[in-house]
Each structure stands twice: as structure tokens, then as C-alpha cells.
Amino acid sequence: MDHPRRQQVLQAIVEDYVHSREPVGSQALVERHHLGVSSATVRNDMGVLEEEGLIMAPHTSAGRIPTEKGYRTFVDQITSLKPLNSPQRRAIRTLLEGAEDIDDVMERSVRLLAQLTHQVAVVQYPVAAVVTIRHVELVRMDEHHVLVVLIPADGRVSQRTIALSAPVDEHVVLDTRARVLGAVTARAVLEAASLLGTSALQAPVEQRPLLMAVAEALQALAASSSEQRMVMAGTANLAHSTGDFARTIGPVLEALEEQVALLRLLSEMQQDDRGIAVRIGADDASDPLVETSVVATGYGPQESAKVGVLGPTRMDYPHTMAAVRAVARYLSRVLDA
């Protein structure tokens, strides 16, 4: 759109409707936004915007509301994002920097983003190209059970209890631990698993079952590290937006629970020049997320994973985009530390 005043009118309609959830009339626009023209002129501009499919009349009311195309045009016109205020930035920094491990970081990130935006917050786990082992611990529980604790370089702790058919004493566990540490520390997980399998063939017979069990645990860790995973928070926020959905929110909740569609969507979304990806609605009417918007951005190494929010199309886009970008930057900083 290359008509400055009509851009202003569209922006004003979006802002007012997002705030009030009520159709916006020309007289209200003139009074609230000081457009410098008469309500008749604004009505003419609104008529043009309606012809272009940017706004619509939801019923016989004189007011208008934005369409998906109108929201899209509004979002594309945002040239700069207002930074979060000092208390909000301080809250992000304090909360994320106090996290204990990557799972804690992910949980804190989505809880915080849901609170900042009042939407559903989601974050993909970063998928490392090569996962290396920082430390392994073997703890004898009793003569037939040993706890294996694997700590990869990304800080995500994995543990499992191994049941052994033959009894094992503390001395065997300590000797096995030394052999395991020598084979796996600072090595890629699959390489470490292979080395342990070879080492088991050369180890004393009493250590072999435990070594093979640790190798299997490493293989399981490699498999889980390559999976796409996500965590979310704020689903209850949708309960406050049921009026924004012409249909029931059931399909949206089901899609969030299954996660597959949302993970695929996040992976496919392309960031614009502002470093933000915004999807408004969907072309396919059968898409369960057709009445939602998703705002996301990449974080971490090569920004391969995304953090973002999902909510109804009636969304405070400038604030949401700024909040998503701010959390992503702090998240990258914490994970790089």
C-alpha cells in the first residue's frame, strides 16, 4: 500500500480492534488517532481498504475489523520494533541466567514468554550436529542394579537404571567407570558407544555386561538428541480468546497436544529482514491452525531452532514480535555461555 493516510487508518483499525475486540468506526478513529481529516474522509478510506480486502464488516455494524490480509499488511509495515522496557529485560535476564540445565532453560523460556505475551509460548530444542560426552557416572544401587548418568556437552542430563542378571560389587563398578570415562569423555556419542562395544570384548568378564549396557544407553542418547523436541506453556491463555475463534478451539488444542503440525510449521517458517517470522492464518481451510497466528524467530547455533508464540490472529503483533526476539537473544546468550 502506497497511500500514507490509508496506512494510518489501517494501523489505527488494527490497534483499536486488538485492544477492544470491537468493530471500529470512522468517528472513533478521528477522535482517538488525530488523523487530521473528517470522519467522511476516513469513511472513504475505509471503503477503499474494504475493497482491497484489508478490512471487513463483521455484521450490520458501521464498524470494521481487520482481515488476515489486513493483519499481514500491518505486520509488513512495521519497520522497527520497540524494545522491551527495563523491568521486562531484567526479568528475562534474571530468570534465564538462573537455570540449572538445558531442560530448565527451555521450561523457563516458555513460561516467561507466555507471561510476557499472554499467548501460547513454544520453543524447539536445539539439535546439535554432533553430541559429545562431558561426563559419565556409574552408581551401584544394589548388587543387580546400576544407575548410569550421562551428561553430554549441551548439559542435558540423561539417566537410566541398568538391571544386571549377575551380581556386581562396588569394585567392579568403579573399575568399569574408569574404563568408560577413558572411552567416552569428549567423544561424540555414537563414537563413544562403538568404542565401548569394542572395549567390552577386551574387558574382564565381570565388566562386560555393564559396559554393553552403557553402550546401549549412549545409543539411546544419540537417538533422542537427533529428535525434534519442543516444550510449551500458556495453553490456558487460549481460554481467554475463545471469542476470537469462529469455530471451536478444539482443533487448535489437539494440534498443540500432538505437536507434529506445530513442529513442522516452525521448521518451515522463514525469517524476514527483521529476523522474525510471522504466519497469519493459513491457505488451507482444513488446517487446524487456520484461525491462529504464529510469531517465531531462530536462536542458538546457526539459529537452527525456533522460539515463538501462537495465538489468535487478533494479536498485539509489535509487542509479541519484540518479546519473542528479546527472549531468543537471551536464550542464545545463555546457551553460548
UniProtKB/TrEMBL annotation:
Residues 16-59 form the HTH deoR-type domain. GO terms for molecular function: DNA binding; DNA-binding transcription factor activity. It holds the Pfam family HTH_DeoR. The keyword Hydrolase does not apply. Residues 103-321 form the Heat-inducible transcription repressor HrcA C-terminal domain. It comes from the Bacteria. Keywords: Repressor, Stress response, Transcription, Transcription regulation. GO terms for biological process: negative regulation of DNA-templated transcription. Belongs to the HrcA family. Negative regulator of class I heat shock genes (grpE-dnaK-dnaJ and groELS operons). Prevents heat-shock induction of these operons. This is Heat-inducible transcription repressor HrcA. The gene is hrcA.
